[in-house]
Structure formats: C-alpha cells, structure tokens
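Hi support team,

I submitted a single chain yesterday and got back a structure, but I'm not sure I'm reading the token output correctly. Could someone confirm the output below corresponds to the sequence I sent? I've pasted both exactly as they appear in my results page.

Thanks,
R.
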Amino acid sequence: MLYLLLDETKTKCFAKVGYTKDRRKGEHNSRLSAYHTHNPSVIIKDFHAGNRATEKAYYNKLLSHLGSVRTKNEWVEISEDFYNQLLLNGFNAI
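Hi R., thanks for writing in. Yes, this is the structure output for that exact sequence:
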C-alpha cells in the first residue's frame, strides 16, 4: 500500500509518498503512527494500491519533478499551491 503524507511547517510545505507492507490504514498502521510520534504536524492524507517499485519508479520521481527540493529523507519541498491541491485531492493531484 502506498501512502501520501503532508507536512506544513510555518515557512515551508512538504510532501512524501511512501510504501508500507501493513495493509491497515491510518493510526492502526504501525509505520504511519510512528510519523505522528516524531512529528505531530504530519497529515496522513491518502492511500493507494501499489508496491515499492511503483513508489520509487513513478510517484517519487513525479513528486520530485513537481517539487523544488528533495530532502535526504524523501520529503519533497513543494509550493503552497501544490500543497493545497494535494490536501484537497490526495493522489489525484499528482
């Protein structure tokens, strides 16, 4: 399962597409609940069927092209407008 995470700091907007083997969504997913432990401002926005290859070969490349700065931990800095599109439409905005 693929997931879309959003994080808005006071000065920048970030997005991340990731993969988890856990098929439980939201707070019941151990991978995703760990994000809230370390960063309570993370928004778990959307889920999508997929595998690790799809995450890396398609979504992360596309997100990198649409964003401006890729960080070491796979978060991509994006514009406020694109952040709002993702917030509203989830994976459908990518």
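A quick pointer for reading it: Residues 2-93 form one domain. Let us know if anything else looks off.

Best,
Support desk
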